[in-house]
Amino acid sequence: QKSSGTDYEYDANKNVTKESYYYFQQNVWALNSVTTNTYNDQNKITSTVDQYFDESLNTLVNSYKGTYTYTDGKYTESIYQEWNGATWVNDWRVVVSYKPNGLPDIAMEYEWDGANWVLDSRVTLTYNANNRLASDLGQNLVNAQWINSYKSEFTYNASNQMLTYTGYNYD
Q1: In what order do the strands lie in the sheet with 74-83?
Q2: What is the rounded distance in angstroms from the CA atom of residue 33 to the CA atom of residue 4?
Q3: Contact of 169 with 149, CB cutoff 8 Å
Q4: Is residue 8 classed exposed, middle or buried when 0-12, 13-18 and 19+ CB atoms within 10 A define those classes?
Q5: What is the mean pLDDT of each run of 10 residues along the chain (171 residues)?
Q6: Which of 26, 87, 145, 148 is the most exposed, having the fewest neighbouring CB atoms within 10 Å of its CB?
Q7: pLDDT at 171
């Protein structure tokens, strides 16, 4: 039985520029929401805007926006904003740092308090000798101390194919 579907639109570089989500109701496809993406000249996503279909207004309404920044071709920052009916309002932010070998190191996550970005949490990545992700550790900042939240561990075979993923949550 039909229940939902997605239409995709692409640019000349095969980037997904629009995703339209539909629900099948009363024997017709009804638009539910749309995500629109933009890209830079290196085909890296620079923004994404989510909109939902308001049936009472019969139009798409903004809901969420992500803006992505790159430094020397590497992803370094995301800023996420919510639509308040008139303008985009900051919600949260991620800033990524890199190891000297170019691999991602730490992602610092911030929440918007209405006036400033406030450090909230971080994810620290570690790698094995073959530069494959070995673990990630999520921590929350509580009373100026880092408190473990979760950890993921990964193992690989001799061909660098992932064998196991184990996830942990901390009490």
Answers
A1: 4-10, 16-25, 28-39, 45-54, 59-71, 74-83, 88-98, 104-112, 117-127, 133-142, 145-156, 162-169
A2: 12
A3: yes
A4: exposed
A5: 96 98 94 98 97 96 98 96 97 97 97 98 97 97 97 96 96 81
A6: 26
A7: 81
